[in-house]
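Wed. Picked up where I left off yesterday with DUF402 domain-containing protein. The coffee machine is broken again, so keeping this brief.
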Amino acid sequence: MALGKITEIKQTLLGARHEFECDLLECCDGGAAVLYRLPKDNLLHGVALSKGDLSIGYFWEARAYNVYHFLSVDGQTRAFYINISDRTRISARCIVWRDLVVDILIDAEGNCRVLDEDELPCDPQPQIAATIAAARADIVNNRGALQQQWRQRSARLVKQYSLRERL
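Structure written out below (tokens, as returned):
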């Protein structure tokens, strides 16, 4: 059973705010894992997601990104969706983070695409530009090892919480 409900709050560079109610799976050492079940079919940059699929979100206060591991109802990876971010704060009630626009999609076959760079403001603040560049390079250059870590952690959480059985 999950540890309880938690609200994920995504803030954009332009000040918009989006909230998602999730199940808290883990929370320790400046990091958290949450579960969200997709309420409807969706297309994520060409990756088909189905109603009932799982999204296990990983958040860290000390990393410049968060990750959503999308899993089919039979436990197969559909994709990893990485948001480059900053200002992540984790408490017992909520996870708040700021979306820095640029995202990275890694599909089930390991193909990697950097997304939304064209949506960045023409002249982002130097600190934001540096955060994006460093996180992008880290994720792209280390994606194999990172995917392995995320898959192992998700497999453990799925087993620990019997997530597939509760679909």
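Quick read: The chain has two helices and ten strands.
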